[in-house]
Protein backbone atom coordinates (compact mmCIF):
# COMPACT_ATOMS: atom_id res chain seq x y z
CA UNK A 1 0.00 0.00 0.00
CA UNK A 2 0.99 3.54 -0.67
CA UNK A 3 0.53 5.09 2.73
CA UNK A 4 3.37 3.23 4.32
CA UNK A 5 6.06 4.51 2.01
CA UNK A 6 7.20 8.10 2.30
CA UNK A 7 9.85 9.82 0.31
CA UNK A 8 12.81 10.86 2.38
CA UNK A 9 14.22 14.24 1.29
CA UNK A 10 17.92 14.75 1.29
CA UNK A 11 19.19 17.55 3.55
CA UNK A 12 19.96 20.78 1.67
CA UNK A 13 23.53 21.16 0.57
CA UNK A 14 26.00 23.28 2.47
CA UNK A 15 26.12 25.90 -0.31
CA UNK A 16 22.36 26.31 -0.19
CA UNK A 17 22.52 26.81 3.56
CA UNK A 18 25.28 29.42 3.33
CA UNK A 19 23.80 31.37 0.40
CA UNK A 20 21.67 33.72 2.59
CA UNK A 21 24.74 34.43 4.73
CA UNK A 22 26.80 35.38 1.66
CA UNK A 23 24.01 37.62 0.32
CA UNK A 24 23.70 39.36 3.71
CA UNK A 25 27.46 39.92 3.90
CA UNK A 26 27.54 41.34 0.37
CA UNK A 27 24.65 43.75 1.12
CA UNK A 28 26.28 44.88 4.38
CA UNK A 29 29.61 45.36 2.59
CA UNK A 30 27.99 47.54 -0.09
CA UNK A 31 26.22 49.61 2.57
CA UNK A 32 29.48 50.05 4.50
CA UNK A 33 31.30 51.14 1.33
CA UNK A 34 28.59 53.70 0.50
CA UNK A 35 28.69 55.03 4.08
CA UNK A 36 32.47 55.35 3.92
CA UNK A 37 32.27 57.25 0.62
CA UNK A 38 29.71 59.64 2.14
CA UNK A 39 32.00 60.16 5.13
CA UNK A 40 34.94 60.93 2.84
CA UNK A 41 32.84 63.41 0.82
CA UNK A 42 31.61 65.24 3.92
CA UNK A 43 35.13 65.47 5.30
CA UNK A 44 36.44 66.82 2.00
CA UNK A 45 33.64 69.41 1.84
CA UNK A 46 34.37 70.54 5.40
CA UNK A 47 38.08 71.00 4.75
CA UNK A 48 37.39 72.87 1.50
CA UNK A 49 34.87 75.15 3.24
CA UNK A 50 37.32 75.87 6.06
CA UNK A 51 40.04 76.60 3.54
CA UNK A 52 37.90 79.01 1.52
CA UNK A 53 36.03 80.72 4.35
CA UNK A 54 38.82 80.88 6.90
CA UNK A 55 38.15 80.68 10.61
CA UNK A 56 34.72 82.28 10.41
CA UNK A 57 32.92 78.96 9.84
CA UNK A 58 32.63 76.42 12.66
CA UNK A 59 31.07 72.99 12.18
CA UNK A 60 29.32 71.69 15.30
CA UNK A 61 27.02 68.78 16.15
CA UNK A 62 24.00 71.03 15.66
CA UNK A 63 25.11 72.30 12.27
CA UNK A 64 27.27 75.12 11.05
CA UNK A 65 27.90 78.47 12.74
CA UNK A 66 29.09 81.47 10.78
CA UNK A 67 30.86 84.27 12.57
CA UNK A 68 30.82 87.80 11.20
CA UNK A 69 34.28 89.15 10.68
CA UNK A 70 35.16 92.43 12.46
CA UNK A 71 31.55 93.59 12.80
CA UNK A 72 30.49 94.65 16.26
CA UNK A 73 26.88 94.70 17.31
CA UNK A 74 26.87 98.44 17.90
CA UNK A 75 28.26 99.33 14.48
CA UNK A 76 25.78 96.94 12.85
CA UNK A 77 22.88 98.64 14.64
CA UNK A 78 24.19 102.08 13.67
CA UNK A 79 24.34 101.14 10.02
CA UNK A 80 20.87 99.62 9.91
CA UNK A 81 19.39 102.48 11.90
CA UNK A 82 20.83 105.04 9.49
CA UNK A 83 19.11 103.27 6.58
CA UNK A 84 15.81 103.22 8.47
CA UNK A 85 16.10 106.93 9.27
CA UNK A 86 16.87 107.77 5.64
CA UNK A 87 13.90 105.74 4.44
CA UNK A 88 11.65 107.39 7.03
CA UNK A 89 12.76 110.87 5.99
CA UNK A 90 12.24 110.14 2.32
CA UNK A 91 8.81 108.66 2.95
CA UNK A 92 7.51 111.38 5.26
CA UNK A 93 8.26 114.49 3.18
CA UNK A 94 5.33 116.85 2.68
CA UNK A 95 3.70 117.61 -0.70
CA UNK A 96 5.50 120.95 -1.26
CA UNK A 97 8.86 119.67 -0.15
CA UNK A 98 8.39 116.47 -2.09
CA UNK A 99 8.70 118.18 -5.47
CA UNK A 100 11.80 120.08 -4.33
CA UNK A 101 13.36 116.91 -2.92
CA UNK A 102 12.59 114.99 -6.11
CA UNK A 103 14.16 117.74 -8.22
CA UNK A 104 17.27 117.79 -6.00
CA UNK A 105 17.61 114.00 -6.21
CA UNK A 106 17.16 114.12 -9.97
CA UNK A 107 19.83 116.80 -10.34
CA UNK A 108 22.16 114.84 -8.07
CA UNK A 109 21.75 111.62 -10.04
CA UNK A 110 22.14 113.43 -13.38
CA UNK A 111 25.31 115.08 -12.11
CA UNK A 112 26.71 111.73 -10.96
CA UNK A 113 25.83 110.05 -14.23
CA UNK A 114 27.49 112.81 -16.28
CA UNK A 115 30.69 112.55 -14.24
CA UNK A 116 30.87 108.74 -14.53
TrEMBL record:
Transmembrane segments: 20-42
Record protein name field: Uncharacterized protein
Species of provenance: Staphylotrichum longicolle
Domain of life, per lineage: Eukaryota
Matching PANTHER family: YALI0F30239P
Keyword field contains Membrane: yes
Basic residues bias locations: 104-116
Keywords from the named record: Membrane, Transmembrane, Transmembrane helix
Chain segments carrying region Disordered: 93-116
Amino acid sequence: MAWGKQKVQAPPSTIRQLLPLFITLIVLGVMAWVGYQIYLSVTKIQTQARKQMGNNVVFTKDGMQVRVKSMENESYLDRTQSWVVKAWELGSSSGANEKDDAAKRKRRTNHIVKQG
